[in-house]
Amino acid sequence: MTLDAEELEAEAKAQAGLDDFGDGEHREGLERLVRSFNLEADLTETGELMQRIRLVSLLSSRLQIEETYRAHPSIEAEEVEGPVFVIGLPRTGTTALSQLVAADPQFRSLRLWESSSPCPPPESASEHTDPRIADTEAGLEMMNQMFPLMQTMHHEEATTATECQDLLGMSFRTVHFDGFGRVPSYLEWVTDCDMRGTYRYHRRVLRLLQWHCPPHLWHLKTPVHMFALEALLEAYPNARFLWSHRDPAKVLGSVCSLIHYCRSWSSDRDDALELGPEQLDRWWLAVSRAMDFRSRVGDERFADLSFADLQVDPVGALATAFEQIGIAFGDASRHAVAGWATSHPPGSHGQHTYDLADFGLDPDQVRRRFAPYMETYDAGA
Hints:
Elements (H helix, E strand, L loop, with lengths): L4 H12 L9 H15 L4 H27 L9 E8 L5 H10 L4 E2 L2 H5 L14 H16 L3 H4 L11 H5 L14 H7 L5 H15 L6 E5 L7 H7 L4 E6 L6 H13 L7 H26 L4 E5 H6 L1 H11 L6 H13 L19 H7 L1 H7 L4
Parallel strand pairs: 1-3, 1-4, 2-3, 4-5
């Protein structure tokens, strides 16, 4: 098999029984991605099948979203509030921070089950019993059986907040695809492409998801937003940011270990020694872009949280951060967030072990590269 954009779209149309992908802006990214998968990722037959299933699912979701808008054009009038975005280097506590925010009842978060299958749009009356929850749980159980280390690296549950990578993936413009296979030419393009349409579509999906399932004040998370914050702000003029910080030398080994493991599902190629320098370059680019963006738009939109504070006093750290960006943190919010923190202590899903040297890096090398970031945000913990 070889991946082909035309065939993938045809398969999605057949599955969904629909044929309108919307504005068509997704097609360039899809073509570039499949070309990179075919020529650079060294996919096994199983790996190619896995990628095919993933890409067809994203295309099918796009078809269903467009059909729902066609049938219910009033969705376009929905106002997305905020959002509050959790950003920061991967493995800096962004997931724990995201779950803390998601526990606050004033926020609407993107849950795993609706991210992978947004249509039909969720309903408040059935949001906790929707059959897609059970389907997602079954999929997670299968994945954890096949790839047991994943639970210690990146634990997810069907009903908890997830990264909004699927919402970017529906436009086929996101660095996330690098986690599933080696795609250097695609990454070279996607880190500098025009992301404005991608974030407009991101907002289009949020409008649909909140239509019958409020609240409308959103919280979202993914480190890759740092590559394109200008485009994000154009789509969300009221966006605010919670930025988690940690010593990059303690982060990059974990990032590489996770990507190396996930790529092994689809390819027999061992790219560990090239992965380290690639990730070092990529995440310094993301951080430097975010720092430049912040210097231009001002600190008022940002609150900083250290990994150490999130480990020691997560509720206090979040309360302080909310105050800095003008978000209320009343008794109901504090009680809910404290309940989540108590029931999810650090390390409760096992210990992820890794060695930075396995990926061709050493701590001093990483810290030298990130010196401006570490000095600016005291990110040495």
